[in-house]
Write a structure and sequence with these properties.
heterodimer, A: OB fold (Dihydrolipoamide Acetyltransferase, E2P), de novo design (two linked rop proteins), 9 helices, 8 strands, B: alpha/beta, four-stranded parallel beta sheet, binds zinc ion
Chain lengths: 255, 200
């Protein structure tokens, strides 16, 4: 049974928004306790609407919502954390859209857990303060994969199930993780994964951010980690990731 | 939809439903309204919709929607060549024109960068803007994208692309809305209004 409460008050992150009708906005929200849902913000596009400034993308907002027939309506909105640094730096804002895109793709209406909400909020916070978004992104991706039930297998061979040895291995998205060189022989799938990359992924998968943020990762290793995780995410979602294309473009243009 | 409904009706309902902000209910209401209204209304509407695409084009200089190319603003010799206001949509040109205070020209991007929605720089008239500035004669570019995540990202991206040309780049000041009450203003708007304060 859906709950019959008419209004609810919750912290939300605004994932997406589109113009609706004359002056309204239709929002896709990730809420702290009620999953992902849609809400209509009436009059939000008028600049003097007092809610307008509190309905910014990726902001953490304390919101009061009223249940309607098709979707919710925003009654009150008060920004708790605007994550301003995201809006003032193109690379950071692109990483934020990557996070939001992944959350949106991995969750259906009403069905996100509080853990996903907390992962998103803490990752946006980290993006605002850290100099290097890459570790934050990989940590977020692994966390989200875990919550969605797609944690890659990094300790046992995904085919033979035996413990993998400390050596270079292969990573196979269709098999859901690492394949040892023996079981990889004769297969036409699987990307090479270096031992350092495997170690970092394992560490990220099992350790809290406080420990992970201190790990020193070189540029080549960063590229390898990104390539592996994005290959896996693209496979799991069966879709290209749009924000990633934009991030790659920025990187290309920067030379 | 039920078989009892004639095909021309379902066709129009479906066509209306594809417009932004119109759900299936509104689409049905509009359709049945037209059925009851005098024939003349449907005919005027149909003709106007036909003309919309047949008789408009985008200006080859500023990319605003126009009947003739170049558009009246680009053709107007009295308007300053050296200043460009960059906007997301043709309607934004009208908004700036309504101030009556701007004598320069425009460049319409036709959208804002939104990676999540799959809208990248290549979908906007950014390359065309850079070429226009490179061609010379432009002294200042005023970025007037909407305040907010997508407008900010677009402004920053446009800025990156224009820096090598050496043109002066400014952005509309972001401040307090007239008629607003300070206590309801969000902290970002207030912060930016504070940063952009002016001596009096
Ligand atoms: Zn023009």
């Amino acid at each position: 049974m859906p709950d019959r409460e008419r209004t609810l008050r919750t912290d939300v992150v605004i994932l997406r928004r589109q113009d609706y009708g004359e002056a309204d906005r239709l929002l896709v929200l990730l809420t702290a306790g009620h999953g992902k849902l849609r809400a209509l913000a009436k009059g939000a596009r008028k600049p003097f609407a007092r809610k307008a400034g509190h309905l910014e993308l990726y902001a953490l907002v304390d919101m009061q919502l009223a249940r309607g027939r098709e979707w919710y309506t925003v009654r009150e909105a008060e920004t708790r954390e605007p994550f301003l640094a995201l809006r003032e730096d193109l690379v950071r804002s692109s990483y934020a859209s990557h996070f939001v895109e992944l959350i949106d793709r991995f969750t259906g209406e009403h069905d996100a857990s509080r853990a996903e909400f907390e992962l998103l909020v803490s990752s946006l916070e980290r993006l605002c303060t850290s100099a290097d978004p890459r570790s934050i992104a990989r940590y977020f991706e692994l966390g989200l994969l875990g919550l969605a039930g797609f944690a890659p297998s990094l300790h046992q061979c995904a085919i033979g199930q035996e413990d993998v040895q400390p050596q270079d291995q292969f990573f196979s998205p269709p098999d859901g993780g690492v394949i040892c060189p023996n079981h990889h022989a004769g297969l036409d799938r699987g990307l090479p994964i270096s031992l350092p990359a495997l170690k970092v992924l394992r560490y990220m998968q099992t350790q809290p951010w406080k420990a992970v943020q201190g790990v020193n990762i070189g540029a080549a290793l960063h590229l390898e980690l990104e390539r592996l995780l994005l290959a896996y995410l693209t496979y799991v979602l069966e879709q290209r990731l749009q924000s990633v294309e934009f991030l790659r473009r920025l990187r290309r243009e920067d030379g | 939809m039920s078989q009892a409904i004639p095909k021309p009706v379902t066709q129009l309902v479906e066509a209306f439903s594809r417009l932004p902000g119109i759900g299936p209910k509104t689409a049905s209401r509009l359709t049945y309204y037209l059925l009851r209204a005098p024939d003349e209304l449907s005919q005027t509407l149909a003709a106007a919709i036909g003309d919309l695409k047949a008789k408009t084009r985008t200006c080859s200089i500023c990319y605003n929607i126009t009947e003739e190319d170049p558009c009246p603003i680009c053709r107007d010799e009295a308007r300053e060549q050296g200043t460009l206001v960059i906007v997301e949509e043709p309607l934004d040109v009208l908004a700036v024109e309504r101030t009556g205070a701007y004598q320069g020209r425009y460049h319409v991007l036709h959208g804002a960068i939104s990676p999540v929605e799959g809208i990248g720089p290549e979908d906007l008239k950014i390359r065309e803007l850079v070429a226009r500035v490179q061609a010379g004669g432009v002294l200042e570019v005023i970025i007037a994208t909407n305040p907010g995540m997508e407008g900010d990202a677009t402004a920053m991206y446009v800025q990156r692309q224009l820096v090598p040309t050496g043109v002066k780049i400014t952005r509309l000041a972001r401040g307090l809305p007239t008629g607003g009450d300070l206590e309801y203003v969000d902290s970002v708007t207030l912060l930016r209004a504070l940063q952009g304060r002016q001596e009096m």
